[in-house]
């Protein structure tokens, strides 16, 4: 268990050299007080393989506006995959989660099959 704010933890991990091209960040909280700060850090770490955030398209648009207000550039914002896990035809959360896992593993260069 980690008792810290996500943005502080991610920043500390980066400063300690624990982040590399196999690292993926998936934000699943749907709360701007957590989402925006951790995405600010993540989108400015070029070594991350993948940065994604779950939420509706409206949530995504709001998140982009907040990130722009926080000073992120269009180039940094283009790195954000969002909304992730979206599958309007899914009857259970399983299919979007599998697709999310597959995309993040592929981005990290991991050869794996997830079905």
UniProtKB/TrEMBL annotation:
Coiled coil (residue ranges): none
Pfam family, one: XdhC_C
InterPro entries named in the record: MoCofactor_Util/Proc, XdhC_Rossmann_dom
Domain XdhC Rossmann: from-to ranges: 14-94
Gene3D superfamilies reported in the protein's UniProt record: NAD(P)-binding Rossmann-like Domain (3.40.50.720)
Stretch forming the signal peptide: none
Protein name from the UniProt record: XdhC Rossmann domain protein
High-level lineage: Bacteria, Bacillati, Actinomycetota, Actinomycetes, Mycobacteriales
């Amino acid at each position: 268990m980690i008792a810290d704010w996500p943005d502080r933890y991610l920043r500390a991990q980066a400063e300690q050299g624990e982040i590399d091209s196999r690292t993926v960040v998936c934000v699943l909280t749907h709360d701007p007080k957590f989402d925006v700060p951790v995405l600010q850090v993540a989108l400015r770490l070029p070594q991350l393989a993948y940065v994604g955030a779950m939420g509706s398209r409206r949530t995504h648009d709001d998140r982009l506006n907040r990130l722009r207000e926080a000073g992120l550039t269009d180039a940094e914002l283009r790195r954000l995959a969002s909304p992730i896990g979206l599958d309007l035809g899914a009857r259970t959360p399983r299919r979007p989660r599998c697709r999310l896992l597959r995309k993040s593993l592929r981005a990290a260069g991991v050869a794996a099959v997830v079905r």
